[in-house]
Design a protein that fits this description.
Helix content is 56%, strand content 3%. By secondary structure, it is mostly helical. It has one domain. The radius of gyration is 21 Å and the shape is globular.
């Protein structure tokens, strides 16, 4: 089996990827309650689309909606709703969005395995790092939630991993462009990961050396194809917004009643002054400690990334003088800058959920940092992350010790 995996037998790899997805789904299901989320915005939108509408019938006061011309619209981009159209066509408003989140979350674990194969030859590293992504990061908690905000994160990760794998396989640049575009139309900040894909296709659009000037060494065709693939979804989004709000710009967040009156938007939806509050969560937020049982509880404002996934420290061992590392770090910085400028930090959550916008690239760096041999200290940090995230999942979903 190991030899087949190392040589890349397509049939064997497919079977392993399917097995990883199945096992992941089973674990996601049995460590949670599987109950339908009340924040099933994408099921509601899918039902609306099937009935020839972009707006919902009712003002559902318990979910976040944009109001315009007396109609009610969901706030996030619509790709998750489009993906689940066939299911909603069969099961209607009874569709369990939570189970669909488990499904795509499980697929993401398999995609992480396939992405790891693009970097390391070691089957042990491939499997251990896939397990790390699926169960040793907040992806587990987010996929188990199923609500509108979390489902968006899960689907954007799906498309980012697909685009990443296609770029490693040197597929036609149109294809990873389409994957990036689909991720964008799910979570808008992900479009800022374009430096990674430009780096991966560097040899195709830029010829090094020779006597030609720098400008004459550039072949724009691969970049045009890639940009066209992503640009299709940018156009889709503009048309979608114009159909809803009479403007090509996504103003849905601004149309939530009373949103700008909230104190956390004192400087508007986005502002540089909000960066410290995000840094405090992603790097400094600790669990809550007390002198009474259970003594330590999660902070529902978030937890520091080094607590939820300590193995990410190996991202810093990936080097900086290679195109994978350069592309990943540039993408991470650009996405994080936009996320950190948002007035909110994710609200009730385990970990820092906005980080999932760049987790696929942090994952790649971690795999590269670990290299081709998994050692006991790598495994130790991965296992610690699994225990921490299991704690958050059980605390929230199995025993119901926190409500949403």
């Amino acid at each position: 089996m190991n030899d087949k995996l190392k040589t890349g037998s397509n049939k064997t790899i497919l079977l392993v990827a399917v097995a990883i997805a199945v096992v992941s789904f089973v674990i996601y299901f049995f460590t949670t309650n599987g109950q339908p989320t009340q924040f099933n915005n994408f099921v509601l939108l899918a039902d609306a689309i099937l009935n020839g509408r972009l707006h919902l019938h009712d003002n559902l006061t318990w979910i976040e909606l944009a109001h315009y011309n007396g109609k009610y619209f969901i706030v996030p981009p619509p790709v998750p709703a489009i993906l689940i159209l066939p299911v909603v066509a069969i099961t209607g408003l009874d569709t369990n969005q939570t189970l669909l989140s488990y499904l795509f979350g499980s697929i993401n674990v398999s995609l992480a395995f396939l992405a790891a194969r693009c970097i390391t030859r070691s089957i042990k590293v491939q499997i251990w790092t896939a397990v790390m992504f699926g169960f040793g990061t907040i992806h587990w908690w987010v996929a188990a939630h199923g609500g509108v905000w979390m489902f968006s994160h899960v689907i954007s990760v799906t498309f980012l991993f697909i685009a990443i794998i296609l770029s490693f396989k040197k597929a036609h640049p149109l294809l990873p462009g389409l994957g990036l575009g689909a991720a964008y139309w799910t979570r808008l900040p992900t479009i800022l990961s374009f430096p990674f894909f430009m780096a991966m296709y560097l040899d195709e659009w830029y010829k090094r050396g020779g006597t030609k000037s720098i400008i004459r060494r550039i072949n724009l065709k691969p970049l045009i194809y890639m940009g066209f693939g992503a640009g299709i979804f940018v156009v889709f989004n503009a048309v979608y917004n114009y159909a809803r709000f009479d403007t090509p710009f996504d103003i849905s967040y601004y149309l939530i009643p009373g949103i700008l009156e909230e104190y956390w938007y004192a400087e508007g939806i986005f502002d540089l002054s909000y960066i410290p509050r995000h840094l405090k969560i992603i790097f400094g937020r600790l669990p809550n400690f007390s002198n009474e049982f259970p003594y330590i509880t999660p902070s529902w404002n978030g937890l520091a990334i080094w607590i939820t996934t300590p193995a990410f420290i190996y991202a810093f061992f990936a080097g900086i003088r290679n195109k994978i590392a350069i592309g990943c770090w540039l993408s991470i910085v650009l996405i994080a800058l936009v996320d950190f400028c948002h007035g909110t930090w994710g609200f009730t959550q385990f970990g820092y959920r906005f980080a999932l916008d760049f987790y696929p690239f942090l994952f790649l760096l971690t795999v590269k940092g670990i290299g081709d041999k998994i050692r006991w200290y790598h495994i130790t940090l991965i296992v610690i992350g699994i225990i921490v995230n299991l704690w958050g999942v059980l605390w929230t979903y199995k025993f119901g010790w926190v409500g949403f």
